[in-house]
Amino acid sequence: MKTKKALLIVDLQNDFCPGGSLPAPEGDAIIPVINRYIQLFLSENLIVFASRDWHPSDTLHFQEFGGQWPVHCVQDTPGAQFNPSLKLPPSTIIISKGMDPKEDSYSAFQGKDALGVPFKDILGQFGVEELSIGGIATDFCVKFSVLDALSSGFTVKLLSDAVTGVNVKTPFDADWAIEEMKSSGAKLVTYDELRRQLSGASFAEYPI
What we know:
This protein is α/β, with parallel strands linked by helices and about 210 residues long. It has a single domain, classed as Rossmann fold, CATH 3.40.50. About 25% of the residues lie in helices and about 20% in strands. It is built from five helices and six strands, in the order E-H-E-E-H-E-H-E-H-E-H. It has a six-stranded parallel sheet with strand order 3-2-1-4-5-6, sandwiched between helices. Strand 5, helix 4 and strand 6 (about 185-190) form a beta-alpha-beta unit. The radius of gyration is 16 Å and the shape is globular.
C-alpha cells in the first residue's frame, strides 16, 4: 500500500447532516463528492481515515453542562453514526474524538483509533506525509484538523468542493475559516485537480 498520501473525512455523521441535532445546512450535499474522493484514493491504494465525534452523554462540550453546543453525536446513538449515504470501505480507519468530558476536541489530531493509538502516531506508522481533508464543518472540526495537520508538519490539501460550514456566528464563518487555512499553508483543490495530481492516477471518472 502506498503510504505517502491519505484521505481524511471529517465527521460526516447523522447529527451534522440535515435532520440531525446540529446540522450543517449542506451537510448531505457534499457526500456524493466525498464518495468520489474515496473511490479515487482506493484506486490509488491509499489510506482512508474517517473521524467522528464520539461524545459521552455528560460532557462540558454540551450546553446543559456549560458548553456551546446542543447534545450531538453521543456514543452509540443513531446521531453519532456515519451518514448512510457515505460509502466508507471496510479498510477505513476510524478516528474517534470528543471522548474526554472536559474537552471540546474539534481536531482529528485529538482523536484515537479503536486501540487507543493517537491519530498523529498512526500517520507516522503508515508514513503519511500529505493529507487531503474534507467534511463537516469547515469552520470548526475541518479547520482545527487542518491547522493541527499543518502545525504537525503535514502537507494539507483542503477539498474545497467537499466541505461545508455551520456558520453559527455569521454567514461568513466558513469563508473566513478557509482563508485562515489557506494563510496557514493549506492548498485548496477540487476533485479534478487532485485526480490529476495523484501519482499514477488513472484519470478514470468515478460516478457519483
